[in-house]
From TrEMBL:
Main location: cytoplasm
Keyword Cytoplasm: yes
Localization of this protein: Cytoplasm, Nucleoid
Signal peptide range in chain numbering: none
Any GO CC annotation of this UniProt entry: cytoplasm
Keyword field contains Cytoplasm: yes
Family as reported in the entry's similarity comment: Belongs to the RdgC family.
Keywords attached to this entry: Cytoplasm, DNA recombination
GO biological process: DNA recombination; regulation of DNA recombination
Molecular function GO labels: double-stranded DNA binding
Pfam families tied to this protein: RdgC (PF04381)
Function: May be involved in recombination.
Lineage: Bacteria, Pseudomonadati, Pseudomonadota, Gammaproteobacteria, Cellvibrionales
Protein name: Recombination-associated protein RdgC
């Protein structure tokens, strides 16, 4: 359950649902396995797995949720090979070439035939809502996976005004300044990994692993104009991670001391251990992210959520319609 990646979204409106009401709303989109002709299914499952039945697990005001995505696995090479065989049969039988549109129809037929027999692959996506911090925190390595969870959560609860968490200072410029000094921000130490990019040539990338980031070679690249887009950091000696220019954290590693802190709760059951892990992890992440935001100059609160943008567009459209009606009347 310990998160390995963090993609954080800022709530632009107060989140007022409690665990009971949120569980009730998620129940309308609880996970259902793929049927014979389904290519994929997405829904909500208990964060505690077989040890629980509730779709929301609350601890210290934090609300843990878990989504499950199941996909039918049909290798593209197998599909293409079957389509090619069918196309050759048609060509030989009717003495003509099979066009692109007809090949697409053949592909659809092949998928329809193969889908019921295909293996189903599943993955779990954990996230938690932190109303007191004003965040939704998702354990996702990619933005697309995080957005998929948010889209389904928004559909289940009807309204979710969030934007990606951003800082006042540009991360790549700030991290470049740190490494150029070289001086890590307060509460942080440099790790042993970074990614440098040329702002004039997006294809020019240098990735360094297991390196002394304060070494002269790294400094020379920065002097030449390269910027830091990913930077390994250690927070208070307890959490290692890779921060990127989108303010997402990857490859998070919690120290043995923190893991032992959760284990020391002498949990009597899997549920109690989950509570202990969840409580320790969320408190550490909350403090870590707040320190990181301070290092980046604070939270940027100027960006608007999708809901706010749509509401503004609707108001502008309504105002324009009212103005048009007034012009007709007068």
């Amino acid at each position: 359950m310990w998160f390995k990646n963090l993609r954080i979204y800022r709530l632009t409106k107060e989140f007022t649902l409690d665990a009971g009401k949120l569980d009730e709303l998620l129940e309308t989109q609880a996970f259902v396995p793929c049927g014979s002709q389904d290519s994929a299914r997405y829904g909500w499952v208990p964060p505690l797995g077989r040890h629980g039945s509730q779709l929301v697990h609350a601890t210290n005001g934090y609300l843990m949720i878990c989504a499950k995505k199941q996909e039918k696995v049909i290798p593209a090479a197998v599909v293409n090979e079957k389509v090619e065989e069918l196309a050759q049969v048609i060509s030989q039988k009717e003495a003509r070439q099979v066009g692109r549109k007809e090949r697409q129809n053949l592909k659809d037929e092949v998928l329809l035939e193969m889908r019921p027999k295909a293996f189903a692959r599943s993955r779990l996506q954990y996230a938690y809502i932190a109303p007191q911090d004003g965040w939704v925190v998702i354990d996702a390595a990619s933005a697309s996976a995080a957005e998929e969870l948010l889209e389904n959560l928004r559909e289940a609860i009807s309204s979710l005004a969030v934007v990606p968490l951003s800082a006042k200072n540009l991360p790549q410029q700030t991290m470049t300044h740190w490494l150029s000094a070289p001086e890590a921000p307060l509460q942080f130490d440099f790790g042993h990994e970074c990614e440098l990019r040329d702002p004039k040539d997006s294809g020019s990338v240098i990735r360094c692993k297991n390196q002394d980031l304060c070494a002269e070679e790294i400094h020379n690249h920065l002097v030449a104009g390269l910027q830091v887009h990913k930077l390994g950091l250690t927070w208070r000696g307890g959490v290692e991670f890779l921060a990127d220019d989108q303010l997402s954290l990857k490859r998070i590693k919690f120290s043995d001391e923190l893991l032992e802190k959760a284990d020391s709760a002498d949990a009597e059951s899997a549920v109690h251990q989950f509570d202990a892990d969840f409580a320790v992890m969320t408190l550490e992440i909350s403090a870590l992210v707040k320190d990181l935001l301070t290092a980046f100059g604070g939270v940027n609160t100027e960006s608007a959520s999708v809901e706010e943008i749509m509401a503004k567009a609707s108001r502008q459209e309504a105002d324009a319609l009212t103005k048009e009606v007034d012009e007709v009347v007068f």
